[in-house]
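Q: Given only this backbone (410 positions), what sequence would you predict?
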């Protein structure tokens, strides 16, 4: 499978957007641990954040595959995991959760300013005491007469230090243990504290940090979905995030192939091109082979996502495999380029540091193997892998937005 003509054209358009607008300042943001709001708005003005969002909220009403094609081009052009991680956190996690589980009123309230780039959102589930085991979060809400009071601390959250809007998850006090609810609200509130960005090895152009909630008063219409929908919202957003993460990795790796191939042909050692040595060819061939394999599984996962099938297994394969080949490929390109690749004024060493972060962000390989194993066991028993309450059809999301999303009273 390949992108169709419309998708190819989106891919080319957003390659240029990434190359012209984002790439020139990527190294500076990495060095200074800096997120640039003006640049974010400029990217928003190109329509990227709303490509697969309904037109009534300022989006372009296209499908997830069209957004995927644009993202692949954008990633290849910008080579800036800072902006890319921020983008995936907002579009794949927050926006897609809203479109799929929010009411019309909630979409009208939150989506237009996110799509335009005026506001930025974070998606906060991880806590200091738990990452992979999302069900063991301690953040919780107590019901009040008019809504809820939220307490808890979220940790290692993309965009948290600068986000204007937060989507987060908390256990509902007094309900059964796995009852987790999802909320969305403004961060401009004295009961909410946002830390400075963490000083991390990579992904330094995206602000990652803590967000603390101390007696945050929330109304019922700050709740996304029903009270028990939190885990279903999470799983839906994770599926979208995992597939889109594979696509952005595909975008970032593509130029590495062209550039390391070119370098191998031009660089001379011992009187011949270094690319004449099979040991060197192997690095470039490995990246190409892995990228082709990744693309194959991405298209299958995208197809399933579009058709509303539970693609947990494929999405986990995409995320796990893309994270593994991302750091391997960045290192292979660097090895081909020797000193040239190791210099900080090239982007290869930055990409390698960023790629290592993807081994954890979006779930570790060990957790994805668990998901794959569980799906395989269910398949072997011919069990339906579709989870209760999990709405999966992207096409239906756009066509039937909000039909059955009215908030039930708590
Ligand atoms: C760049 C970046 C951005 C991030 N952005 C966000 C964000 O926006 N929002 C958010 O909520 N979180 C975010 N995270 C956090 C991320 O989701 C967690 O780091 C991830 O879930 C892993 O959690 P942990 O680091 O606490 O590891 P742990 O869960 O403590 O795991 C530690 C190790 O134990 C292994 N392990 C744990 N349980 C099992 C098991 N049952 N079987 C086998 N092995 C196991 C893990 O695989 C890992 O190797 C981000 C992380 C990074 C690096």
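A: Predicted residues:
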């Amino acid at each position: 499978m390949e992108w169709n003509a419309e998708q190819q054209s989106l891919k080319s358009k957003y390659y240029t957007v990434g190359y012209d607008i984002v790439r020139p300042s990527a190294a500076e943001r990495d060095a200074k641990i800096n997120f640039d709001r003006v640049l974010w708005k400029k990217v928003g003005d190109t329509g990227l954040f709303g490509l697969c969002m309904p037109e009534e909220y300022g989006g372009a009403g296209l499908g997830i595959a069209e957004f995927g094609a644009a993202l692949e081009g954008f990633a290849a052009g910008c080579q800036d995991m800072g902006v890319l991680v921020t983008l995936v956190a907002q579009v794949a996690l927050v926006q897609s959760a809203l479109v799929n589980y929010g009411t019309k009123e909630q979409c009208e309230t939150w989506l237009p300013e996110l799509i335009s780039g005026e506001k930025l959102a974070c998606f906060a589930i991880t806590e200091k005491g738990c990452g992979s085991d999302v069900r063991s979060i301690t953040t919780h809400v107590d019901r009040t007469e008019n809504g809820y009071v939220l307490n808890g601390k979220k940790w290692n959250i993309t965009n948290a230090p600068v986000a204007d809007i937060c989507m987060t998850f908390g256990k509902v006090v007094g309900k059964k243990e796995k009852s987790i609810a999802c909320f969305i609200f403004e961060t401009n509130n004295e009961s909410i504290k946002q830390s400075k960005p963490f000083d991390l090895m990579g992904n330094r152009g995206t602000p990652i940090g803590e967000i603390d909630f101390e007696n945050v008063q929330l109304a019922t219409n700050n709740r996304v979905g029903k009270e028990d929908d939190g885990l279903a919202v999470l799983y839906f957003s994770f599926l979208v995030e995992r597939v889109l993460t594979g696509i952005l990795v595909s975008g970032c790796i593509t130029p590495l192939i062209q550039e390391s191939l070119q370098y191998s042909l031009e660089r001379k050692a011992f009187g011949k091109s270094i690319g004449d040595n099979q040991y060197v060819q192997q690095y470039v061939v490995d990246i190409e082979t892995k990228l082709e394999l990744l693309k194959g599984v991405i298209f299958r996962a995208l197809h399933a996502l579009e058709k509303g099938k539970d693609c947990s297994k494929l999405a986990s394969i995409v995320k796990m495999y893309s994270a593994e080949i991302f750091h391997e490929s960045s290192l292979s390109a660097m090895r081909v380029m020797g000193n040239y690749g190791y210099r900080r004024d090239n982007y290869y060493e930055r990409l390698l540091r960023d790629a290592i972060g993807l081994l954890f962000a979006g779930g570790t390989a060990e957790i994805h193997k668990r998901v794959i194993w569980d799906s395989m066991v269910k398949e072997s028993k011919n069990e339906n892998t579709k989870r209760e309450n999990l709405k999966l059809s992207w096409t239906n999301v756009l066509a039937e937005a909000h039909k059955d999303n009215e908030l039930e009273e708590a």
